[in-house]
Records
---
Amino acid sequence: MIATFPHMGNIYIMVKTLFDEMGIDYVLPPKCSKKTLEIGAKYSPEMACLPLKINIGNFIESIEKGADTIFITGACGPCRFGYYAEMHREILRDLGYDAEVVALEINEKGLKDLIAKLKKLTGGKKLASLAKPLFKAYKALCMADKIDELSYQTRPLEITKGQTDKVIDDYRNKLLETKSVKETFELMRDTEQRLLNIELERKDTVKVGIVGEIYTLIEPFTNLHIEKILGNMGITAHRSLYISQWIKEHIIKQGLHIKSKKEFAVAAKPYLKTHIGGHALETIGNSVLYARGGYDGVVQIYPLTCMPEIVADGIMPAVRKDYDLPSLTLVMDEITGEAGYLTRIDAFADMLIRRKQLREEKKKNEVLLLRH
Ligand code: SF4
C-alpha cells in the first residue's frame, strides 16, 4: 500500500506524523496550487464545491507519484460533504484510476466501523498499535495549529517587519524534510520558541474574526492567506475554526459519546435555530461572539455554491445591524481574481482602522469634556 490523502491546512502534518510513526509508505500530495485546482476543476462537475475539486486535484497529483490508497474523512448530514467519498470514488474510477478510497468517518455504526477502517493502517498488527501513533499525530496537529495561532498574534505587533513570515517560511520548508516524528516535534518546539522570542510592540490592534466554511478557512491556498495579509497590515486576525478542534469535536468526542459545549450555537439561536450542514451555525454564532467580544469586524469566507454558507451569508446583514459589526464576504472558486480580492481586503482593513481611530478620538474628546 502506498497511501495518500487530501490537503486541508495542517492536516498533512498530522497524517505525515502518523505515517512516519507507523512506517507506512506514503505520498505527500504536492502543496495545493493553481495546477492542483485546474486538474480538479477539469474532472469534477462544474457545480461541485471547491474543496471537492481541490481534493480531486490532490489525488490525481498523488496517484501520478505512485499512491494507490486514498484516506479521507467523511461525514453524513445535510450538506454535500456527506457524499464526497462516493464522488471521489466515481470520478477517479471514470478516469481509469484504480486507487482505493477509504473514508474514515463516524457513521451510524459508531466507533467500530471507523476502527475497522483504521485497521488498514496497522497492516495486520493489533489495533492497539495505532493508539500511540494516533496520539502523537494529533499532538503534532495541535502544535501546528498553535504555531499558526501564535503567528497571527505576533505578525501585527512585530517591531521588525517580516520576522514572523521568516520564521513560518523556515518552518514550513523544513517540515517537508523531517524524516522522523522526533525531528518534527523538535522543529515545532523550536518554531514556537522563535515566535515567542520576536520583539513586539505594545499596542491595541484592530481585531478581525475569520468565519466561514471550514475548508476555505483552514487551507491557505483557498483563503489567500487571509490571516497573513491582515497581520501584515497590522490587524490581529482570529480564526474561528481549527482542524485540531474539528477532530476533537467531531471524531474524538462523538466517538466517545461526549457532549460538546456549543457556545456558538447558543449565540446563533436568535438568527438560526438548528444545524443546516457545513459550518453555517458556527459562522453566525461566532460572528455574534466576536461582536460581543469587542472585535472590530468579521470576514466570512466560503466556496461558491456552498449551500450552508449561502444561508449564513443571507443572515449576516441582521447580525451586522444588531451589533454594528462590519463584515466582508469572500466567495472563492477556481476563477477567483486574487488582485480584486486583495483590493477588497485592503479597503475593508482601511475602513476598520479608520473606524477604530474615530472611536478612540471620540472617547478622548468625551474624557476632555468631562474634565472641563
Ligand atoms: S460545507 Fe459547503 S463547501 Fe463544504 S462540502 Fe458542504 S456544501 Fe460543500
Note: The radius of gyration is 22 Å.
---
Amino acid sequence: MISGNDYLAQAPFDIKQLPSLGSFAVIVVGGGAAGVSAASNLARKGHDVLLIERYGFCGGGAVAGMSGTICGLFLSSDSRKNRAEQVVFGFAEQFRKRLSEMGGLTEPQKYGKTWTVTHDPLMWREAADGFLRDSGVSILFHSRVVGVLREDCSVRGVIIDSKSGFARIESRLVIDASGDADVVHRCGWASSKGRDGVMQNPTMIFRIGGVDIDKYKSYWGEDTISPQHVVDALVAAEANGDFHLPRKKIWIFSTSRPNELLVNATRIMGFDGRDLDVTNPLDHSEAELASRLQIREYAGFLKARIPGCEKSFIVDSGVEVGIRQTRSIVGVRRLSNSDVIERKKYSDGVVRCPWPIELHAGDKPRVEWLLDDFYEIPYSTLVPELGENIIVAGRCLSAEHEALASARVTAQCFGYGHAAAVAADLSLANDIPLRAIKGEEVRDLLNKEGALLD
Ligand SMILES: Cc1cc2nc3c(=O)[nH]c(=O)nc-3n(C[C@H](O)[C@H](O)[C@H](O)COP(=O)(O)OP(=O)(O)OC[C@H]3O[C@@H](n4cnc5c(N)ncnc54)[C@H](O)[C@@H]3O)c2cc1C
C-alpha cells in the first residue's frame, strides 16, 4: 500500500531501483471524465483501483480546461425545437443527476439544433471526489505518469514523478485515460495526431460576471451559438482594428450562477499564426501566453459591443488552455469519419453519440449535425493494436480526425470510462486479455448497469 512520502528521487533512474508504492489490480491514469468514470465503476465492482492525476483535482478538460458543459446527451433535430431528448445514459446520467442535485447544473440550453447543460467547475470536482470516495478508489493527486513498467508487450504498471521523486507502481491492468494517450505513447506504440499532424485549435475558456442576463438575451437570443448579427459585429470589430478576434463564430452559455456567462470564443494559434501541437511543451507554453492575451480581447469586445455586458468583468479562465485533440491511439479498430456521418450502429457498440462533428479550425468552427439519430462507438476502438493489459478511455480513442471532433465530448468520455471498467472487470475475473473481450458482452453488461444502449 501507499505510505510515506520520503522516497528519494533518482536521476537518471534505474527502473529496478525505484521505490515501489505498491501493487493494484488496475491503475487509471488521468482523472478527466473518462478516468473518473473508469475508476469509480471498477472500484464499485470490488477491485483495488488507483487513480493517478497530475493536478490536485479531477475534471481534466471539463474543469482545468473549463469546457463547461456536458455535451453529447441529447439528440439534434430540426423538428424538436423546444424539447431536449436525452439518448445517452449510464454513468453520464449518474454524473449529470448528481451535479443537478448539488445545484451545479443548468437546464438544457439550445446549441444550434441540439442542447447542452452547463456545469459549475467547482461542483464538478466535488462530484468527482464523491464518486471516487464512495466507490473506494485510491487516489494519487499531484503525481504524473512519466514511464511504464513493461515486459515485452505486456504492461505491468507505471512510473510516476511527484515532489518526492520517481517511484514505481505495479498493476495487472492500466487504463490510459490521460486524454493524450500518454501511457500508450510512452510504451512506444503508434498514435496519430489530427489530419497529417494538424489538430483542432485549442481554446481558452473564460467566465464573465456582472452581466444583465435579460438584456443580453434579448440581444443575443436563446441559442448559445452566436447569431448572424453577432458574427457581423465580430467581423467588423476585427476589420476596424478595435479588437483582435481570430474566431468569428463563438459560443456563450448561461451558467448556474446569477449574472454570469461562460465564453467559448478564443482560437489559439502560435504568435506567427501557425497551428500548435501542445504535446510539444514549447507550443503548449506559447498557447498559454497567447490565451491570456486573447481572452482580454474577447472580454473587451463583449463589454463594448454586446448589450447586457457593459459592466461585465472576467471572473476566471481555465487553469490551462483547453485542448481538444492530441494523440489518438492506433486501435484494433478505427472510428472513421463515414461511421459518424452514416450514423453506424454495431453489435459491439459500447457508447452512443448524437453530438455533431464540431470541428475547430479556421475562423468559423464547422458544425455538421447528425439529425434525429446517433452513431455507436465499438469496443475495439479503445483497444490498442499493440500491447497487453492496457486499454484507453476518453478522447484518445482510435478515431479519424472529423470523427474525433464528434466523439470527444464529455458524455461520451464518461461512457468510454464505463465501458473500459466493464471490460477490465471481465478481463480480471476470467483471466483473459482485454483484446479477447467481446464488445457484445461489454454492451450487455453496460445495459444491465443502466446505459440503455438497446
Ligand atoms: C475548449 C474546449 C471546449 C470544449 N467544450 C466542450 C463542451 O462544451 N462540452 C463537452 O462535453 N465537451 C467539451 N469539450 C471536450 C471535453 O471537455 C473533453 O474532450 C473531455 O473533457 C475529455 O475527457 P477525457 O477524460 O478523455 O480527457 P481529459 O479531460 O483531457 O482528462 C485527462 C486527465 O488526465 C490527466 N493527465 C494527463 N496526462 C497525465 C499524466 N501523464 N499523468 C497523470 N495525469 C495525467 C489530466 O490532468 C486530466 O485530468 C471541450 C474541449 C475543449 C478543449
Note: The chain has two domains: 1-62+120-199+325-454, 206-317.
